[in-house]
Write a structure and sequence with these properties.
Bound molecules: flavin-adenine dinucleotide
InterPro entries: FAD/NAD-bd_sf, FAD/NAD-binding_dom, NADH-Q_oxidoreductase
Cofactor: FAD
Distance between the termini: 54 Å
CATH architecture of the largest domain: 3-Layer(bba) Sandwich
Enzyme class: oxidoreductase
Helix content: 25-40%
Number of strands: 26
GO biological process, one term: aerobic electron transport chain
Radius of gyration: 22 Å
CATH class of the largest domain: Alpha Beta
CATH topology of the largest domain: FAD/NAD(P)-binding domain
GO molecular function: NAD(P)H dehydrogenase (quinone) activity
Strand content: 15-25%
Structural class: alpha/beta
CATH superfamily of the largest domain: FAD/NAD(P)-binding domain
Length: 427
């Protein structure tokens, strides 16, 4: 029997899981291609929710999608594994050995997978730009492990602050969507936790948001940045713009002007760079942030059979910001055109369609922008419309992956859960 066309997708994030599911449902189901998804973890999470997992305001048991279960329902295969290299002449990729996290014992040897088409979508992480002390003394919110690790520390430090009648100082570097939303979400977590514990005197949270640029939320109109600062200050977050961090240690951050920002918990949520492994992908051209440079067709510069999309890709001719919106659109583009390309038809160029952006500051406020720059949200409804849109984007993603029936059941389960469990993680 002739070998089927093999498409290997590495990274089951916003872009990769949408692509694997759509291709599985089309060419996988029809038996025209063998689709394999590889990811270093076993479950998918919607990355724009990571700050909620870090604060404990979302229960990630309900929000994880198992790759194996998704694969079995949508006609693709899943292999757990971390990509370490690509050999483009042999059309193979190397996966690191898998070890038992509990004791380091070898579970699966290093492996090699063969491909006819390879799609790389391994996302990004925050960029500390080599700032001294950051790697050693700061926490990151780049994946579920980081977010859960932060939440463990956050709950312990809150308990310590409560027991010792002290305030808890947290400093967050990066006034983009991640840092700004995290600052508000941590306050929301304490507000909810105080309903269950801490008696009449909950610990005081002193959060400082540090941004090197002249304003926070630079991707939004200035009116939104100003309103967000007012909202954050109203809940007690201190916002410092034009504050360039020059170092970090176990006591806090040092700023370029020599001043210090003391903090028990230090979070680095600034900058974006691709995972370091992109430099082992057979000499593919990289951007300054290590992203794989691609043509408008999402093929890498040097190889027609290797594609990159989402945060780890850089469209040299017409760059787009690394967002979930762009990652999804790129996945939809490849899901639509790869099957034709397999039959020898040329690939059309990807065009990004900006549908606006939304930012939600916990339950306190939220704003959105339409493509023309019109702002909605804010006001006396506390940005309810924007917060609803923010939630709807997540539900849309869930429905895409689960389908309408399981998507609806998943929503109902989440809503019913509110009557059973506290709406913040307490254990
Ligand atoms: C806290 C936070 C809030 C955000 N809010 C928004 C928002 O409101 N709106 C918006 O549009 N965007 C938002 N973003 C950005 C958005 O999440 C990303 O742009 C989007 O997730 C990119 O999708 P992706 O598929 O490229 O990567 P990801 O979704 O990050 O997926 C990458 C996948 O690759 C896997 N992987 C990584 N390295 C390897 C390896 N070596 N081998 C195998 N697998 C690997 C990972 O496990 C992961 O599953 C936010 C990001 C964060 C961190």
């Amino acid at each position: 029997m002739a070998q089927k066309f093999r498409i290997v997708i590495v990274g089951g994030g916003v872009a990769g899981l949408a692509l694997a599911t759509r291709l599985g449902n089309s060419v996988g189901r029809a038996g025209r291609a063998e689709i394999t998804l590889v990811d270093k973890s076993f479950a998918h999470v919607w990355k724009p929710m990571l700050h909620c997992f870090a604060a404990g305001t979302a229960a990630n048991e309900n929000d994880r999608i198992s790759f194996m279960s998704q694969a079995s329902r949508h006609h693709f295969e899943f292999w757990p594994g971390e990509i370490t290299a690509v050999d483009r002449s042999a059309k193979t990729l190397a996966l690191a050995p898998i070890r038992d996290p509990a004791n380091g014992e070898l579970v699966v040897d290093a492996r090699t997978l063969e491909y006819d088409a390879l799609v790389l979508c391994i996302g990004s992480r925050a960029n500390d730009f080599g700032t001294p002390g950051v790697a050693e003394h700061c926490m990151f919110i780049d994946n579920l492990v980081d977010a859960n690790g932060f939440n463990d520390r956050f709950r312990m430090e809150l308990l310590r602050a409560f027991a010792n009648h002290q305030a808890l100082d947290i400093a967050i570097v990066g006034g983009g969507a991640t840092g700004t939303q995290l600052a508000a979400e941590l306050h929301k977590a304490l507000d909810i936790a105080s309903l269950y514990s801490f008696g009449e005197k909950p610990p005081k949270l002193r959060i400082t948001l540090l941004e090197a640029g002249p304003r926070i939320l630079p991707a939004f109109p200035e009116a939104v940045s100003d309103a967000a600062v007012r909202q954050l200050e109203a809940i007690g977050v201190s916002v410092r713009t034009s504050a360039m961090v020059s170092g970090a240690d176990e006591n806090g951050f040092v700023l370029k002007d020599g001043s210090r920002v003391p903090a028990t918990l230090r979070v680095w949520a600034a900058g974006v760079k691709a995972p370091d492994v992109t430099s082992h992908f057979g000499g593919l051209k990289l951007s300054r942030s290590g992203q794989l440079e691609v043509r408008p067709t999402l093929q890498v510069m040097e190889d027609d059979n290797v594609f990159a999309m989402g945060d780890c890709a850089f469209i040299a001719e017409k760059p787009v910001a690394p967002t979930a919106q762009a990652a999804r659109q790129q996945a939809h583009h490849l899901a639509r055109y790869l099957p034709q390309w397999m039959n020898g038809k040329p690939l059309p160029a990807f065009t990004f369609r900006n549908k606006g952006a939304v930012v939600a500051l916990g339950d306190y406020n939220g704003w959105g922008t339409f493509p023309g720059g019109t702002v909605f949200g804010g006001g006396w409804l506390h940005g309810l419309s924007a917060r609803m849109v923010h939630l709807m984007l997540y539900r849309q993603h869930q429905f895409e992956l689960y389908g309408p029936v399981r998507g609806t059941i998943s929503c109902l389960v989440d809503w019913l859960d509110v009557f059973v469990r506290p709406s913040v993680r307490l254990d």
